[in-house]
TrEMBL record:
InterPro entries: Epimerase_deHydtase, NAD(P)-bd_dom_sf. Keywords: NAD. It comes from Thermodesulfitimonas autotrophica. This is Nucleoside-diphosphate-sugar epimerase. It comes from the Bacteria. Residues 7-250 form the NAD-dependent epimerase/dehydratase domain. The lineage of its organism: Bacteria, Bacillati, Bacillota, Clostridia, Thermoanaerobacterales.
Length: 325
């Protein structure tokens, strides 16, 4: 009888991880999910889901107890600007995420797991290349000399090097993607760790028609946002390619935060005004540079931002209404 391929998803209780589990199940994989928590918004699709702390090397080795065909390491201490840029969570971010990566990689090495995917971030790019909101430089080879704008970015950069050194020294097939602002339904939308698209969708959904929403900073900072389905497509394409990375997985459709807000307001059908308030905002400009992914994988994300926002806004509006009840 044909035995299904096996995958382990670390961080399977999170937004990207829970979607990735569903995707792998559709492909016929047997999937084990691991996280500190179950997915918040729907039942996990994993065959086996283990609650536990990957900062603990013993727990880590207990869940990586066989030679998985594919391991996806998405687990991290994670959040949007309100979590990453205040400075209050720096020690936790560096300590927790680095420990998880050290443990997962070591456990995979000891089980002779060959193929492991690591989700890095656009936050590793040097701050000085992202001062001009019109013209950020985020080509993969611009990462060095390193100068990320946050400890979150520094930890991601350290971990990229950690994975690459296991690749060089132990022949492990590591795959590294630098994610750029992934969004979509079933992502965190309140509580302080949510990212800009979800936060703005929530504010718009909660605002009365004719009211106003608050945006951090002057609203002229630029970003690109990638819909979850495209993120999964790129992740799986990279995992099964012969390219190690690091490579950007992001959209090249750059918008200002004000434009993002206007788009969501239009989708909602409300008339709302924007009030700019002081708040953490990160670099001035960031956008995915997709030249390398096109060259190496013959693919790049193409879904228009608005289409992803329509789906996401509808889902968050529903959550807001549920919460009211």
């Amino acid at each position: 009888m044909h035995t299904p391929k096996t995958a382990l998803v670390a961080g399977a209780g999170g937004f990207i991880g829970s979607h990735l589990v569903k995707r792998l199940k559709k492909e016929g994989f047997w999937v084990r999910g691991v996280d500190l928590k179950y997915p918040e918004f729907s039942e996990t699709a994993a065959d086996d889901f283990v609650i536990g702390d990957l900062r603990d090397p013993y727990f880590c080795r207990s869940v990586i107890d066989m030679r998985f065909d594919e391991v996806y390491q998405l687990a991290a201490d994670m959040g949007g600007a309100g979590f990453v840029f205040t400075g209050e969570n720096d020690a936790d971010i560096m300590h927790n995420s680095a420990l998880i990566n050290l443990n997962v990689l070591d456990a995979c090495y000891k089980r002779n797991v060959k193929r492991i995917f690591y989700s890095s971030s656009a936050c590793i790019y040097p701050k000085h290349n992202q001062m001009d909101p019109e013209n950020p430089k985020c080509a993969e080879d611009s990462a060095y000399p390193a100068a990320p704008d946050s400890e979150y970015g520094w930890e991601k950069l350290f971990s990229e090097r950690l994975y690459l050194s296991y690749h060089r020294n132990y022949g492990m097939e590591v795959r590294i993607a630098r994610y750029h602002n992934i969004f979509g339904p079933e992502g965190t939308w309140r509580g302080g760790r949510e990212k800009a698209p979800a936060a703005i969708c929530r504010k718009v959904a909660m605002a009365p028609d004719g009211g106003e929403i608050e945006i951090w900073g002057d609203g002229k900072q630029t970003r690109s946002f990638l819909y979850i389905d495209e993120c999964l497509e790129g992740t799986i394409k990279l995992m099964r390619s012969d390219f190690t990375g690091p490579v950007n997985i992001g959209s090249e459709e750059m918008v200002t935060i004000d434009q993002l807000a206007q788009m969501i307001i239009e989708i909602s059908g409300k008339k709302l005004s924007i009030k700019h308030v002081p708040g953490p905002q990160g670099v001035r400009g960031r956008n995915s540079d997709n030249r390398l992914i096109r060259e190496k994988l013959g693919w790049a994300p193409s879904m228009p931002l608005r289409k992803g926002l329509e789906i996401t806004y509808a889902w968050i509006k529903e959550q807001v209404e549920k919460a009211k009840r």
